[in-house]
Please model this.
Amino acid sequence: MSFELPKLPYDYNALEPHIDARTMEIHHSKHHNAYVTNLNAAIVGTDAENLSIEEICKQISKYPMPVRNNGGGHYNHSLFWSILGINNGANPTGKLMDAINADLGGMDKLKEDFNKAATTRFGSGWAWLCVENGKLKICSTPNQDNPLMDVVTECNGTPILALDVWEHAYYLNYQNRRPDYITSFWNVINWDEVSRRYEAAI
Ligand code: MN
Model:
C-alpha cells in the first residue's frame, strides 16, 4: 500500500485573505506532495507499507530519518488541511469549549499560549493543541515531528489542532511576519472538525 496526497475539502482560494491561494496551491501540490512521494520511497519493502500513518508515527523510533521527516510531513499536513476553514469569528462550542475553559483557562488564554508556542518555535516546526491523558495541552515541535511520535518529548498525545510555522506556509503573503500569520490563523479554524477530533480522542 502506498500513501496518497489527500484532496483538499475546499478550493485553494477558500481561505483568502488570511491564507492566499498561491500559498495553498504550492503548499499542497508541491510541498505536501513531495512528503508523500518521499515517504512512499522510504518505506518500500518495510513493514511500514502495511501500517497507517498514525501507526508509523507512534513507533517512529524504529525507522530511519526519511520516514520520520516525510511521514511526519504527510500526517501533519493532512491534519492541517482538515482543520482549516473560514469561521467568521466563531468560537468552539460544546464539550471542546468546556475543556478549553477547564484545562486551559479559557479561549483568550488558549490563544495567548498557542500563539506563544507558534511564535517562539525557532526555525521550522509546528504548534499543537492535543489531548494528553484526557486533558488539552499546547506545545510545539521542530521540523515535521508531531505529538504522536514516540521520540517526541515536548508532548505526547492526539493532536486535534495544528499550525504549520515553516516559512513555506506563509512567506509569499506575510514574508518574515510570522506573528501576523499566526494572528490570522484564528480566522480560518474549522471548529466543528476540531471538536469532532476532540470527542474522538477523549
Ligand atoms: Mn508545510
